[in-house]
Amino acid sequence: MKIALIGYGKMGHAVEEVIGESTAHEVVSISYKNSKEKLDKEGIKKADVAIDFTSPEIVVGTIQEVLRLGTNMVVGTTGWYDDLSKVKTLVKKYKGGLIYGQNFSIGANIFFQVVGFASKLFSKFGNYDVAGLEIHHTGKKDSPSGTAKKLASIIMENFPKKKVLETGRLDRHIKDDEFHFASLRAGRNFGFHEIIFDSSADEIKLAHSAHSRRGFAEGAVLAAEYIKGKKGWHSVDEVFVEGVK
Ligand SMILES: NC(=O)c1ccc[n+]([C@@H]2O[C@H](COP(=O)([O-])OP(=O)(O)OC[C@H]3O[C@@H](n4cnc5c(N)ncnc54)[C@H](OP(=O)(O)O)[C@@H]3O)[C@@H](O)[C@H]2O)c1
C-alpha cells in the first residue's frame, strides 16, 4: 500500500519506522509545516491512504483538502472533536473514507475491550466499586488523558451504577453514582492506565502501560489497511471489534 505521511514529528517518525519494516507498504509522500509545500498534494493524490499526526489547529482544513484529492485518511491527531459533525459532513460530501481514534495503540484498544467485558461482569456479581488511575510524563498538557475519558465512557456504559465522571480532588465522601478517575504527572511515563474493581472480598486491577510510541504507530498502520478502499466515516474501535468476530 502507498502511504502519505502528514506530520513528521514524533508520531510521523514512529509510523515511518513501522512502515519501513514492512514489505507490503511504502511511504510515497511526507508533509510537514516547514517543508516546501505544507501539503504535498501531488504525493497525497498518488497514495492509497494518508496518515495524519499533526496539530488540532490545522487538522480539519487538512482533512478537507485530502478528501478533495480523493485519498482515504487515518486521523491520529487529537483535540479536534468539537468539529466531528463538520468532518462527517465533509466525508459525505467528497464520498471519501476516514478513520479516526484518540488512541491507536493495539494494546490499549484490546485493553478497552477487556475493561468493557470486565465491567459488565463486575457490575452484575458481588458488590464491587470501580475507580481509575492514570500516570503520564510531565510534558503532558491535558488532564485527565483522552484515554482515561474513553475508559470512563466504557465503564459508565457497562457499569450502570456509575453515571458521573469525577476527576477532581475529593474533600468529601464520593457518591455511589460517581466514577473517580485520578491523574498523576511524573517523569517520562508514556502512559499508564489502571482500572480497579474493589469489594469487601477482594480487589482486581487491570492495567495498560505504554513502553513507547510504537503501539500507536503500529495501530495507525493497521487502521490504514482497514480504511483502504472503504467509504464513509469509521472509528478505530471497529478494527478491534471486527477482529474478534
Ligand atoms: N491517536 C493516537 O493514538 C495518538 C498517539 C500519539 C499522539 N497523537 C496525537 O498526534 C498529534 C501529533 O503528535 P506528535 O507527538 O507527533 O507531535 P509533534 O512531534 O509536535 O509533530 C507534529 C507534526 O505536525 C506538523 N505540523 C504542525 N503544523 C503543521 C502545519 N500547519 N502544516 C503541516 N504540518 C504541520 C509539524 O511540522 P514541523 O515538524 O515542521 O513543525 C510536525 O511534523 C497530536 O495531536 C497528538 O495528540 C495521537
Average predicted local confidence, pLDDT: 95
Q: Give the count of helical stretches.
A: 8
Which structural class is indicated by helix and strand composition? alpha/beta
Residue windows where pLDDT falls under 50 for at least 5 positions: none
Percent in helix: 25-40%
Which CATH top level class of the largest domain fits? Alpha Beta
Count of individual beta strands: 11
The main sheet comes to: 6 strands, parallel
CATH architecture of the largest domain: 3-Layer(aba) Sandwich
Strand order of the largest sheet: 2-1-3-4-5-11
Bound compounds: NADP nicotinamide-adenine-dinucleotide phosphate
Assigned CATH superfamily of the largest domain: NAD(P)-binding Rossmann-like Domain
Radius of gyration: 19 Å
Return the string of H and E elements: EHEHEHEHEHEHEEEEHEH
Instruction: State the distance separating the first and last CA atoms.
Output: 25 Å
Provide the CATH topology of the largest domain.
Rossmann fold
**Binned strand content:** 15-25%
- Oligomer, anyone? single chain
Number of domains: 2
